[in-house]
Design a protein that fits this description.
Layout: H1 5-16, E1 32-33, H2 34-45, H3 60-68, E2 79-80, H4 82-94, H5 100-114, E3 115-116, E4 119-120, H6 150-160
Antiparallel strand pairs: 1-2, 3-4
Helix pairs in contact: 1-6, 4-5
């Protein structure tokens, strides 16, 4: 029995459709202070926690450590942009299945393209369904369609190198 990669990919993408996620349109279009970011993430991701009453979704210490270890670009004037929040969502989902080092490797093309020297570029990450994330080492143009959650779709597309 031979497994067709296209059938396997479609099956994985179909199963990911059932996962609840934060739609990029739900992320505030204004820059947020750290307390606002942690509150937003907690409200939106609480249902995905293994132990919803006990697990911390995101803490100030986590954010500071991500920035200190170059996993997340530093805030601009103590404020986090929509792109920062999207990266934090990536990190949240991936840290359950990947090491921090692997997450850093996976996100490096995105942070290099959309953040330069701690500042955002004119291009935004928000199109993660095949919109703005295109060209170069982080090319996700083959993942257009918005059929699944933002982080999981890009992860599957990276895995299969579409």
């Amino acid at each position: 029995m031979t497994i067709d990669n296209d059938d396997l990919l479609n099956s994985i993408l179909a199963s990911l459709d059932r996962v609840q996620y934060i739609n990029p349109d739900e992320i505030p279009g204004i820059d947020l202070y750290m307390d606002q970011v942690t509150t937003f993430m907690d409200k939106r991701l609480r249902s995905t926690a293994r132990y919803p009453g006990e697990d911390k979704i995101l803490t100030k210490t986590m954010i500071n450590n991500y920035a200190k270890n170059d996993l997340l670009p530093p805030p601009v004037k103590k404020k986090y942009s929509k792109e920062h929040v999207l990266l934090l969502i990536f990190i949240y989902y991936y840290k359950g299945i990947l090491s921090i080092s692997d997450i850093q490797t996976l996100l490096k093309p995105i942070t290099e393209r959309y953040f330069q020297h701690g500042r955002e570029t004119d291009a935004g990450i928000e199109g993660g369904y095949g919109g703005k994330i295109q060209d170069g080492p982080g090319d996700f143009s083959g993942c257009a369609g918005g059929r699944t959650g933002f982080p999981s779709k890009i992860f599957v597309c990276l895995y299969f190198e579409l």
